Amino acid sequence: MPWLRDKWRQLQRDWEQQRFAHAHCFVQQPGLGSAVLLEQLCQLLLCSNSRQRACGSCKSCLLYKAGTHPDYLVIRSEDGKAIGVDSIRRLIVAQQTKAHQSGSKVVRVEDADRMTTEAANALLKTLEEPQPDTYILVAAERPSLLLPTLLSRLQRHQLTSLTEAQIGQWLEQELGRSLSAEEAAQISFYRDQPLTLLNRINQPESNSAATIPSLSEATATLAEAWLGHGPWPSPSKTDVELWLQASEYVLMELIRSTRGVAEPTTAVAQLHEQLKQANWDSETLQRQLQACYALRRQLLEQSGLNHSLLLENLWSAWRAR
Predict the structure, then answer these.
(1) Could you give the strand order of the β-sheet that contains 72-75, starting from the edge strand earlier in sequence?
(2) Coiled-coil ranges per the record (predicted)?
(3) Considering the chain, what is the average pLDDT of its residues?
(4) End-to-end C-alpha distance for the chain, whole angstroms
């Protein structure tokens, strides 16, 4: 994945020159391979032999590959649930314990934007008292949902999206052939997810059998519904997270388009023009985006809620304007 090279070289250089910060935040971008980058980094930090790339053969590397490294802890959301303070307490204990392999200790917090406020405050306190040779790698799909005080103590990393031409060129290299017209037409929907598009091209039978749309498909459907060109979705318990994510994505695309910092997809561009006529400006869109974030936090921290109904109520506010 050529788009990972610059970020990897930056991380590699900071580690080699002993300028690597003790706490980082990586934006979760699965369609761009952010998890691959994070795996490589964790292995490098734990390797006993090299400061350029994990050797793969020392005891520490072998323990990492086996999933049994005693100085490596991963905390993540289970089944989409909130990450509670007890999980962060495990992190605190881990970083206070002496390294078993006499090297670095690495704690990786996935889905960090799903932490409860209590958990986030506990992590903040931990960052305020860094331990030597201990590295905390936080990954969040929506870093803006993290406490501002927490985010300010993390060195942030985000992968750069590719142009459609770059995606097309990479796909043809991976596939060893030219793209069909239908495949090329899908690129505009997958500008931030080239890996997802490659998988869909390689496994068309599994895509046709899927009942849950991709994020790009959900985003397009939502934009078309808002334009009045199609019905509004009926989210279910199994896909409400997807539709909430698509809602956030549509609003972010509209905000970027309003500010002139990105070229939107066709449906979003049409929606932008329609909303301009209805006097929707960047501030109005930003308020709606904050409402999405508030709903996400509410769904994480409160049980017994009707997720689908709350999301449909959010959409009704869009239609009412």
Answers:
(1) 72-75, 105-109, 134-140, 23-27, 155-157
(2) none
(3) 83
(4) 43
Residue 95 CA, distance from chain mean position: 25
User: Across the strands, what pairs with 25?
Assistant: 138, 156
Which residue's structure tokens are 């397009």? 220
Q: Which residue has the tokens 């910092």?
A: 261
Residue ranges per domain, the chain? 2-157, 212-321
Which one is predicted more confidently, 287 or 270? 287
pLDDT for residue 114 is more than 60 = yes
What are the angstrom distances between the C-alpha of 13 and each of 8, 17, 23, 132, 155? 8, 6, 16, 20, 15
What the block records as the tokens of 202 is 């390689």
pLDDT for the residue 261: 57
Contact 92, 124 (CB under 8 A): no
Cβ proximity of 158 and 27 under 8 Å: yes
Q: Is the pLDDT of residue 154 over 90?
A: yes
- Which of 95-109, 147-161, 209-223, 276-290 shows the lowest mean pLDDT across its residues? 209-223
Beta strands in 110-193 (DSSP E): 134-140, 155-157
Residue reference for tokens 């549509």 = 250
276-290-296 Cα angle (round to 5) = 130
DSSP 106-147: EEEETTGGGB-HHHHHHHHHHHHSPPTTEEEEEEES-GGGS-
CATH code of 2-157, in short, is 3.40.50.300
Residue range 155-194, pLDDT digits in tens: 999 888 788 888 899 999 999 999 888 788 778 767 777 8
